[in-house]
Specification:
Number of domains: 2
Number of strands: 41
Oligomer: single chain
Number of helices: 6
Radius of gyration: 25 Å
């Protein structure tokens, strides 16, 4: 069983790090610079960089008795964030870390970058002397970690600190590493408990808990949901043979706990990052990060890599570091890699180099760039940025007074006028379903190439046309589109924080396609009428049509028969389970997803209202696209 000292040795390292079949990289041209802001920490300050303009500043924040400032969760408007400040540490020479660290008063604040306004929150009343931000919820409430009398738990509070609700119970262990599912309905977290480090999921009230990973011989740590909400990634450290937690493997589990996989071997990920010269060391837990297309960024060690800061397990930890600087024993390094969870193969995004340690990779909101940190053996880290394929890497800053920059975190990019117009049009082109499903709205049209280009900054389609349906996209890329356009719509205040764009399930898709009919097609059983409603094998030759060129179904939804197969989620919302009895959910493995509706390549038998098939998730074809639904979060 881990001691409380061991538990607390990890918790402060993660405060900053947590607050959120392709085998080779395809060459690409340099993407346009991102206007997203990049937050980072340096010498107790919070920095803001804008890579597009090479501009950088440090937040001008101050309050009585506050010594350090750290960035926390960011709001969907791309302008505000939560800051954590700490007073002078209540420590003394030789005192164990856990005796003083959680006695140090902390304060939470909101900061508006545009107006430079600072306002204290969570102070009416303060939940505890030691309170840190864990997660910003879609409804504006906050999950915070508190520690009272050396016992930690998570509370859910209003922004001002009122209405505290015990999200986890005292005595269950120290919970942290929280992340919210894409639809905002569930939370994943790990807990340092008497039974060891475990990974759990629960609903938004802390109930209906499910254990994803737990074994006293393994330290399971950190959580992040996959873009499609089906998986949770975390790390697995064999702490008995590695008491410094230097290395770990990457694992994923189904969100319902039904399956788990270890994706790497031999503790190949750098976990407890440590760096710096003898007089200016630092560090913090490294965690894997999902990319929008469903792959995983992580720092991979070179064979036999050994860090210069060696953990000293034989002596008490009095500084929450407990390492000696032994550069003469260091060897190897780490590199940023991109892991495909389906094939378990990795792409090297940065080259391995003796004495160079790359870590803390995080993708930009538009998916075009990756920020990461790089430190030489014995040196402080520099903040870098590179294109998503590893090209065009460049350094941004080495921090305040050249003392290092760490813990990068992105804020959203501004939306230009043309994109805003497209977003408004997209939002207005949804059709409400009849009761009792009126909270679900289905897009009139398949996603167009101009909307995909504005959202994803690329157009993979074979058959080009601004108002043509986008094709040549995989399932994970379709999910990534939904996630990204949700964020953009929220940032532009076109939808609320309780609304979400996603793929329909196969049952939802059929329900919307049938439009109340029970015939083979939404217009009847007569194949002879198909040409009025669909592009298919019989009439597609020589045509390159925009969306909506044929007649819609009875509910005003276009191109549900033919044109393109449409990606659908394998998960069926409970409200649709009894709406359709003609099809049943099919088991879909980690490699597969569902497409519905037929395409321009198919004959009439493939274009019926119940037409669906399972395909590998990484399939890209010029006859496969997507349609979205807009739903209310529960």
């Amino acid at each position: 069983m881990k001691t409380y000292e061991g538990l607390m040795r990890v918790v402060s390292l993660v405060i900053l790090a947590m607050s959120p079949s392709v085998s080779t990289a395809e060459p690409s041209t340099e993407p346009a610079p991102t206007h997203a802001r990049l937050l980072f920490s340096s010498q107790g300050k919070t920095g803001v960089a804008i890579p597009a303009t090479d501009s950088m500043e440090y937040l001008e924040v101050s309050a009585p008795n506050q010594i350090t400032w750290q960035p926390g969760p960011v709001f969907g408007d791309g302008q505000r964030l939560i800051l954590l400040s700490m007073e002078q540490r209540r420590d003394g020479p030789g005192r164990p870390f856990d005796e003083y660290y959680t006695q140090t008063p902390t304060h939470l604040w909101t900061y508006d970058i545009a107006t430079k306004s600072l306002q204290e929150i969570a102070n009416a009343p303060r939940p505890a002397v030691f309170t840190t931000p864990a997660l910003l919820l879609a409804d504006g409430r906050l999950l915070v970690q508190i520690v009272r009398e050396r016992v930690g738990q998570i509370l859910r509070i209003q922004m001002d600190g009122s209405q505290p609700f015990e999200f986890t119970q005292r005595g269950a262990g120290l919970p942290y590493g929280l992340s919210a599912s894409p639809d905002g309905s569930h939370i994943a977290y790990h807990i340092a408990s008497p039974q060891g480090y475990q990974v759990w999921t629960c609903d938004m009230n802390g109930a209906n808990q499910r254990l994803l990973a737990g074994d006293p011989e393994h330290l399971y740590f950190g959580t992040q949901w996959s873009p499609d909400g089906e998986w949770v990634v975390y790390v697995d450290c064999k702490y008995r043979q590695d008491p410094g937690h230097d290395w770990a493997d990457i694992c994923i589990s189904r969100a319902d706990g039904s399956a788990s996989y270890r994706l790497t071997d031999n503790q190949s990920m750098w976990f407890a990052a440590t760096y710096g010269p003898a007089d200016n060391h630092g560090g913090g837990s490294n965690l894997p990060a999902w990319t929008a297309d469903g792959r995983i960024l992580y720092p991979r060690r070179t064979p036999q890599a050994r860090v210069p800061w060696q953990y000293q397990s034989e002596r008490p930890d009095t500084d929450h570091f407990n390492r000696d600087y032994l550069p003469q024993r260091a060897q190897g390094g780490t590199q940023i890699c991109l892991l495909d969870p389906h094939s378990r193969s990795s792409i090297e995004l940065t080259a391995a180099s003796e004495g160079r340690w790359d870590f803390r990779a995080t993708p930009s909101p538009d998916g075009k760039w990756i920020a990461f940190c790089r430190a030489q053996t014995g040196g402080s880290p520099t903040l870098w940025i590179m294109a998503a394929d590893g090209q065009n890497a460049r350094a941004l800053t080495d921090g305040s007074e050249h003392h290092g920059a760490d813990h990068p975190r992105w804020m959203g990019a501004e939306v230009d006028g043309e994109t805003l117009q497209l977003l408004r049009r997209f939002k207005d082109e949804f059709v409400s379903l009849p009761a009792p499903h009126e909270s679900t709205r289905v897009a009139k049209y398949e996603v167009t190439q101009e909307l995909w280009q504005a959202t994803m900054a690329n157009n993979p389609s074979r058959w080009k046309g601004r108002r043509n349906s986008v094709e040549m996209v995989s399932f994970d890329e379709a999910v990534a589109f939904c996630q990204r356009i949700t964020s953009m719509l929220r940032a532009c205040k076109l939808i609320t924080s309780k609304q979400q764009v996603r793929l329909p399930s196969a049952n939802e898709w059929e329900f919307a396609t049938r439009a109340g009919t029970k015939t083979a097609y939404s217009f009847g059983d007569e194949t002879a009428r198909l040409g009025d409603y669909a592009w298919y094998q019989g009439n597609a030759a020589g045509n390159d049509p925009p969306v909506g060129a044929k007649s819609p179904n009875p509910w005003g939804i276009y191109d549900v028969h033919g044109y393109l197969w449409e990606w659908c989620s394998p998960t069926t919302p409970q409200t649709f389970a009894s709406s359709i009895d003609s099809i049943a959910d099919r088991p879909v493995s980690i490699e597969n997803a569902i497409v519905c509706g037929g395409s321009w390549k198919d004959n009439p038998t493939k274009l019926t209202s119940d037409s669906q098939q399972a395909l590998p998730r990484n399939t890209r074809d010029d006859a496969i696209g997507l349609r979205c639904v807009l739903t209310e979060l529960k």
